[in-house]
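# step 3/5: fold
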Amino acid sequence: MTLSGFFQLVWETILDPAAAAHRVLALNISRENLWLAVLLATVLSAIAGGISQAIVPVEPMVVETVNGPVSMNMSPASPMMQGIFVGASLVLMIFALYFTGQALGGRGTFPGTLALMAWLQIVMVALQVATLVLMLAVPLFGAILVFVSFVVFLRGMAMFVKELHGFDSLGRAIATMILAFLGVAVGLAIILLFIGVGAGGADINV
């Protein structure tokens, strides 16, 4: 795929995710390369998140209490922990969307699920970078793009799931997404119990 073809597919994913889903599936990328795409998207997302934290640091949050104001310095997770979180979430979502879709009568394949979710994550990384640039240039537009990115993600995933599993209605795709998100939440909770939540935290100063 050429660079122009890449940006064209990104744009099509934003405007017409159903058509983009068919184009991604038609590429017939090998499973090994798809897992590499998942890894690449995870690393790029963590790097973009780290740069965003360095350029736009988290401001301390002041909370009024009966003993007076309390300053809470929220310490964001390190880029490595962000990468682990994004990667674990993506892998869990791939499996959850595949098995949940199958349980609801879908006929999507695991390689197809892997391809579409890997591509959607790459698109989100591209939007994350664009948001960071706009935040530096025109903060208001950057804030708007954050909301737009969220809409693109949800709409894109819903249409991808619908086309992947051949559902006759968007409602079944949304139901698959909701159940998959619940499954991912449980899976992440279990993972966090093993690795601990100590990578980030809050310093409270009275």
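# step 4/5: annotate
Residues 70-74, 198-206 have pLDDT under 50 and may be disordered.
# step 5/5: archive (pending)
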